[in-house]
């Protein structure tokens, strides 16, 4: 049984909360975390988020604040901005957005007006809520039109994207998504956006770390604006960034502040600066390529066990599994795997006949396990566990799930997670 980290001040002030934090530490240490949007941050990033920078208000931008006492804060934010520009090779970076959805909303505020047509990938096909989907504010305030994927390949048909863009003439086109297992063709999107005079926003929240590490093509030559979270594959804190060409810098900055936000979260900005420093190291490039290698190896092992993978495999960190041929709904499988210590999320698949809250698929990824040091040699073992877990879910075999839980915990104990130096 693992032991949680000491938090003496927290434990003294609020034992109930300290116990919950400790329980989460043990859970993250003992389980195989396969949700592709999750990761482990370093101990240094954790420390940065808990500094006295938390205490300071800093409305405005470096050198142009509405509060005094910014001598150090300005340097912290400038450090984060310059590191973002260097890591991603961009002309402008804004590190103040609180999260990915507000960052995307800032792009709308900068380049569109309520009622304008915007275009993005359909949510059930792998897109994101904030790409103009109906239940999101972006689909309420704007006229959202969506492109999807082909029935036969589950990949984007760019002839259809171009035809839709020509017909609808959107002000903004979003590319990227939350369940896209293939390389995003930024060049093709850029060509279409230029043809219809649209602003291309590349949402790289899921793949930012892969782009930074050279394991996925960069959108920089093709996109007007790049939106990303700073966690996920980038292994930073829960925050976001907007990057752009210099010509769009003023519009982006004005949209973030004062358009949508007040003071930035300076402790998060510091942790972003640190994560970008880590991403600039040669070891991070090794990590990014290992994430992709692990995902491809896991996909091949799952295919060998008869799993139906959307688009037939993966090019990045993410594998989307359609469980229809296993006769187990995605939600049932995800909850059973969770009891087995294998953490995934249930997810719609393209053209899913089931409802979004009870879909046909599960979504898995390799960022977290790669951060723990697991390699391609262990991916067949993980595929076997997933297979056994899904089979047990269909049979209601709780004894098998309990046995899996023990096997998973035993392996995880051999691969301590960054930021979780928990003794066995």
UniProtKB/TrEMBL annotation:
Record's keyword annotation contains Methyltransferase: yes
Domain Serine hydroxymethyltransferase-like residue range list: 11-386
One BP term from GO: methylation
Pfam (any one): SHMT
Stated name of the protein: Serine hydroxymethyltransferase
Keyword terms, alphabetized: Amino-acid biosynthesis, Cytoplasm, Methyltransferase, One-carbon metabolism, Pyridoxal phosphate, Transferase
GO molecular function: glycine hydroxymethyltransferase activity; methyltransferase activity; protein homodimerization activity; pyridoxal phosphate binding
Protein residues bound to (6S)-5,6,7,8-tetrahydrofolate: 123, 127-129
CDD domains the record matches: SHMT (cd00378)
Reported function: Catalyzes the reversible interconversion of serine and glycine with tetrahydrofolate (THF) serving as the one-carbon carrier. This reaction serves as the major source of one-carbon groups required for the biosynthesis of purines, thymidylate, methionine, and other important biomolecules. Also exhibits THF-independent aldolase activity toward beta-hydroxyamino acids, producing glycine and aldehydes, via a retro-aldol mechanism. Thus, is able to catalyze the cleavage of L-allo-threonine.
Associated pathway: Amino-acid biosynthesis; glycine biosynthesis; glycine from L-serine: step 1/1; One-carbon metabolism; tetrahydrofolate interconversion
Modified residues (N6-(pyridoxal phosphate)lysine): 232
Gene that produces this protein: glyA
Residue stretches in coiled coil: none
Cofactor: pyridoxal 5'-phosphate
Site description Plays an important role in substrate specificity, residues in chain: 231
Major location (coarse): cytoplasm
Catalysis: reaction(s): (6R)-5,10-methylene-5,6,7,8-tetrahydrofolate + glycine + H2O = (6S)-5,6,7,8-tetrahydrofolate + L-serine
Broad class of enzyme this protein falls into: transferase
Record-level GO cellular component terms: cytosol
Domain of life: Bacteria
PROSITE patterns in alphabetical order: SHMT (PS00096)
Assembly mode: Homodimer.
Protein family (similarity comment): Belongs to the SHMT family.
Localization in the cell: Cytoplasm
The enzyme's E.C. designation: 2.1.2.1
């Amino acid at each position: 049984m693992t032991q949680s980290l000491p938090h003496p001040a927290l434990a003294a002030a609020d034992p109930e909360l300290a116990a919950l934090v400790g329980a989460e530490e043990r859970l993250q240490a003992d389980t195989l975390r396969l949700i592709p949007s999750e990761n482990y941050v370093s101990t240094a990033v954790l420390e940065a988020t808990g500094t006295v920078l938390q205490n300071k208000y800093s409305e405005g931008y470096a050198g142009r604040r509405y509060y005094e006492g910014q001598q150090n804060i300005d340097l912290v934010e400038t450090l984060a901005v310059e590191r973002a520009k260097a890591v991603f090779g961009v002309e402008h970076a804004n590190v103040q957005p609180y999260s990915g959805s507000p960052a995307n909303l800032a792009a709308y505020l900068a380049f569109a007006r309520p009622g304008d047509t915007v275009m993005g990938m359909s949510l059930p096909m792998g897109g994101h809520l904030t790409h103009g989907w109906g239940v999101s504010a972006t689909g309420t305030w704007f006229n959202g039109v969506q492109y999807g994927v082909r029935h036969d390949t589950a990949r984007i048909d760019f002839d259809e994207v171009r035809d839709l863009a020509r017909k609808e003439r959107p002000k903004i086109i979003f590319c990227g998504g939350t369940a896209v297992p293939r390389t995003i063709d930024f060049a093709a999107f850029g060509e279409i956006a230029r043809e219809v005079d649209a602003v291309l926003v590349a949402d790289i929240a899921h793949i930012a770390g892969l782009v930074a590490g050279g394991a996925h093509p960069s959108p920089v030559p093709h996109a007007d604006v790049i939106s990303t979270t700073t966690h996920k594959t980038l292994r930073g804190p829960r925050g976001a960034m907007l990057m752009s060409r210099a010509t769009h810098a003023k519009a982006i900055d004005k949209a973030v502040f004062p358009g949508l936000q007040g003071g930035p979260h300076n402790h998060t900005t510091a942790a972003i600066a640190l994560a970008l420093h880590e991403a600039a190291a040669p070891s991070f490039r090794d990590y990014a390529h290992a994430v992709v290698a692990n995902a491809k190896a896991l996909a091949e092992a799952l295919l060998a066990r008869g799993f139906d993978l959307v688009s037939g495999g993966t090019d990045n960190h993410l594998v989307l599994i359609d469980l229809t041929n296993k006769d187990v709904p995605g939600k049932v499988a995800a909850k059973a795997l969770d009891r087995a210590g294998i953490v995934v999320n249930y997810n719609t698949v393209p053209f899913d006949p089931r409802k979004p809250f009870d879909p046909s698929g599960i979504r898995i990824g390799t960022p977290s396990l790669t951060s723990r040091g697991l390699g391609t040699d262990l991916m067949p073992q993980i595929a076997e566990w997933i297979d056994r877990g899904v089979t047990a879910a269909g049979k209601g075999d709780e004894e098998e799930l309990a046995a899996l839980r023990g096997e998973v915990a035993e392996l995880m104990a051999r691969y301590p997670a960054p930021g979780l130096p928990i003794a066995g």
